[in-house]
């Protein structure tokens, strides 16, 4: 069998996929004075407070190493805050849970399972029968435009397609929060643009809260309701920029006044922060 990646497939047309079980009443995130200190002088997150309303799409933007993943991981339950608290729908986060789906930069699919069974894995572990779990998987694969590949193995898929399976898998337990850590960082520009539109389509249909980590300003502005900017290490939240572009977002909006204004605001903040980080690294060498 050829190991060449298959070509990208077309995305499902808008409105073709089913509507969510979830209304944006769930997925309320409260990050309250969170500090994460790994010891050895490294404070990864410094007194971060942020409230995200159900169904909001928030991008966390900041220079590399500023603590974006660490902050997101406190919401995921992989990292414990040294002080402060994180709540989702009023419940303090102490461990990972099915209410929060994760998508990472590098896909983490099981290579020995078919695409369908990769997506069905979560519901199966949660106690669904195999037929029901596979039915859920198939409906999610339809949403990400990969129905034709359900019987294939991850090894034959392109990078973009693997990430689409990763998104389907993260959604398979119908979480109220989707946490995405630079999920499109390794993709080429065209695939990335297509993935962004597909993600917005899914977000719209699911009514799910999204925290999306990126260091790409254009990506943040294109996707987000709010862009939250993090400072260079030790990571503080320094700006919360509302993006007032209409939805559905279209690539052509990148030339609109609101888009350019939000982008310029982010660029200036990131430029100052990146310079500061650079100076800091040079000083501590
Ligand atoms: P970003 O995602 O913005 O690139 P991270 O959250 O991965 O940044 O890292 C922030 C800082 O915390 C970095 O200095 C990193 O080296 C440090 N760090 C991250 N995870 C750990 C860990 N498990 N133990 C010690 N230091 C860590
Ligand atoms: Mg990171």
Label this structure with key terms.
alpha/beta; Rossmann fold; 2 domains; 4-stranded antiparallel sheet; 7 helices; disordered N terminus; binds magnesium ion
What does the model show?
- The protein has 285 residues and is of the alpha/beta class.
- The protein has two domains: 23-99 and 176-284, 3-Layer(aba) Sandwich (Rossmann fold), CATH 3.40.50; 109-174.
- It has helices at 68-76, 115-125, 130-143, 159-171, 189-206, 217-223, 257-284, and strands spanning 29-39, 42-52, 57-61, 83-88, 91-92, 100-103, 177-181, 209-214, 226-230, 237-242.
- Helix 2 (115-125) runs parallel beside helix 4, helix 3 packs across helix 4 (159-171) and helix 6 (217-223) packs across helix 7 (257-284).
- The longest helix is centred in the last third of the chain and has 28 residues, at 257-284.
- Mean pLDDT is 89; it is low at 1-6 and 10-22.
- The structure holds adenosine-5'-diphosphate and magnesium ion (MG).
- Magnesium ion (MG) binds at residues 68-69, 181.
- Residues 68-69, 181 line the site of magnesium ion.
